[in-house]
## 1
Amino acid sequence: MQKQPDKMLAAVEHETARLKTLYQYEILDTPAEADFDDLTKLAAQICQTPVALITFVDAYRQWFKSKVGMEITNAPLEAGFCPLTVQKGDTLIIPDTLADPQFAKNPVVVSPPHVRFYAAVPLITKDDYSIGTLCVVDFVPRQLEQKQIEALQTLTRQVMAQLERRLFSYRITEKTQQLDQALKELTHTQTQLMHNEKMVSLGHLVAGIAHEINNTLNFIYANLPHANQYTEDLLSLIKLYQKYYPNPVVEIEAATRAIDFNFIEEDVSKLMSSMTIGAERIHEIVLQLRNFSRVEQTEKRAVNIHEDLENTLLLLGHRLKGISEYPKITVIKEYGHLPEIECYAGQLNQVFMNILSNAIDSLQCNIVSKINDQPTPDSNPCIWITTKVLDSDYVVIQIADNGAGMTDKTREMIFNPFFTTKPIGYGTGLGLSISYQIINKCGGQLTCVSAPGQGAKFVIKLPIRA
């Protein structure tokens, strides 16, 4: 009693494997191909039949890859004799269908096209699976000579050879595409590694320079308050002399006029203030250099993006309000519902500060454009800040402006260290490079979209979870 189920299970497993083999050729429902059509025409000519077919049998139908004397492209499994040929896996010849009780009531015999003669050779794969047939059909009874049968078998082997070549060509194309993709990824990885190596070397160099500058700067910075105090003390002493000795000797009077003492008295405080501002500016540059050489590693924590953006805008409020030279910059906020994300909070604030500061600089530089050498104020400079969740795994922050925009060449260079479009003294060219490193370290992406006259949009994509 156990043999019958075992036999049925084996048949199911064999059919499953046969269909898997058929589908590997990816031949079903493909357009006509001359290589197959030529073989079908030869089969019809050699056997002197009006119909010849290359048929593939899947789980639900018979599909005709190539056909002579037939218009349809599909037939049900119960119509015709190809499924039986595939099942037997051997040549099947029916000289007269009506004279054979096994086939006399087949749908294609008792109704159009009223097939009376059928001969087929199965298409056998190298794994010994029968996936279809090369068959010839006639509407009158007939016989085939042995040479015709042998020729039909030869043509069947040619059909399989075409299938194998077609599969090999497809796999070669597919493998070539995979190799091309792998080569692109390898080239990208190599370029990235080279870039990282350069950045590490550059970071060490910058760190050394920043250290040396900082040592000298600390000496200058520490002595500026004393120099300022000494200068004030000396000026106070001179004023006392002027108060109690209002009539100096001729030689002192001449020296006072020669050095323009009154001007020095007025300008010395401005001079000391300028020196202090300059030292502070150098100090800021050194801090940026240190940040560039080692974007400080701190603990990640949950961050409220909107709070950080608002805090940054608060710090930049004095630049957004506008002055006599520049109109007010309007900030348009479209905040989505964002969860807290895990990142380096202080460094993310630095990114917001850098991008927003650059947007303000761009707008202020674009306030007055020249049309026929006549200044024309831009009456509505704007910054747009948009936030949203992307695919539940990322948040996206977009910061855009309606400034002058950038050319493609400039846009491709903005994340390079020390590249800047600002005048000398107005930027170090490190802000966006540092920002790029920070976002990359957080597992995100920082990109820019811009065109001349179209403003600039910076897109920050950050993972919600570290």
## 2
Amino acid sequence: MICVSIGRTRHKMMMMEHRSLSEKGAELVELRLDWIARTPDVTKLIKDRPTPVVITCRRPEDKGRWKGSEEQRQALLRTAIVSEVEYVDIEDDIADKIPRYGKTKRIISHHNFDETPDNLEEIHESLCKKDPDIVKLVTMANSPGDSIRMLKLVASAKVPTVGFCMGEYGVISRILCGKYGSPFTYATFSREREMAPGQLAFSEMTQIYRYDQIGPETPVYGVIGDPIAHSLSPLIHNIAFRHDKLDGVYLPFRVPKDRLEETLKEFEFLNVQGYSVTIPHKEGALKFAGAADQASKTMGVANTLYKDEKNVWQARNTDYDAALDSIRLGLDPEGKASDDPIDGKQVLLLGAGGVSRAIGAGIINAGGALTVTNRSRVRGEKLAQDLGCAHTTWENRGSGHYDILVNGTSVGMHPNVNETPFAQNFLLDDMLVFDTVYNPENTLLLKQARERGCKTVSGIEMFVRQAAAQYKLFTGKEAPLDVMRNTLRKGISAVAKL
């Protein structure tokens, strides 16, 4: 079950949102009295309530907005109890001052907005001694491992415990706490009114992560990177799971660069079955794996980790085939060529990161004549040396004659949509321009290329194809490619509106 928090300054708006949430399927709603500008009228708020409620009134020291006296605040909580609301949230330091009465259930809560302390179990034990029906323990996650510690506590708790972590590192605990026995988790009415750091919207929890369908045996997958909040991978994989009616959840795992191996070992508690891997972990993922395919070994990077039937981590690089197939699609849309259309083509590759390394290796193996250029000359020369291909300086990138231009840099990515890595006057009329940037789909580079009459392929195609290959490795099933493509486009459109 998901408890949806509402915080509005007017009674009328709080009641309207409560009805709206009920119509959208919400089963439990938290009414934050501390948000109301005037003296809260509990009786008015709970009369004819469309769902059960949790009454909460937070003090400023608990990141709340209550401006009255402590006596007035506690009087409101007592009023709610006498009115027999379903739940009242009582902070642990005042739990002894507000006795149990009637049918109302007591949520005894403790929040730490700075850290997940070492004595987490001691704090939980003290909460359990304050006559709770439910213990609520919420802390700030400062590392991925904090969420694991919290979920372990929830799983072992004898008293029903709502336990999760705040912040970006804590998002996974908000989504998975029910899997380990939490009576419910918390969400907000909308992302625009986040009540606590890392809180997700009710629509995200239900439509993307399908929280109420996550059970003890639900397989867990995810994307690891840093940063990771911007990633659209959770959106497209979870919607694909839903389309195929598969039991599974795909999460955003923020993992610092220097803590990959340590974190993946901590995540063994979650029994994760597969990871998509993005910056800065593609080299680390390859080192972590127990085995890897030849392409990953050749390139020195992997963008996928998955467990085989023997529970051994396997590394793969799905960028490789996805990029080549995208280029081939642009050169030969109907697939009529008997030979590889890349063979013999002059190709200029912009960038020297992990994606560029994968694409470069693929082009060479397909018979293309590759030239690498990069803003950092040292990195560009190093990649060219590793691949055994030509190199040109960034300043001279527009002086050659190329059949194919590939942008493997992030130039032009949202929100910097008015930038391009290759001036329009550098473009040639008969050139194929492939931009690996997928947000926005129509980058400035691609717009200017079409104006010059070039053939173009957007990063949407590569992103979807590499994700589809991961999906098959994870699930053993062919991915719903069109569903993923349409979902990604909608996701990009939503991000563009923010």
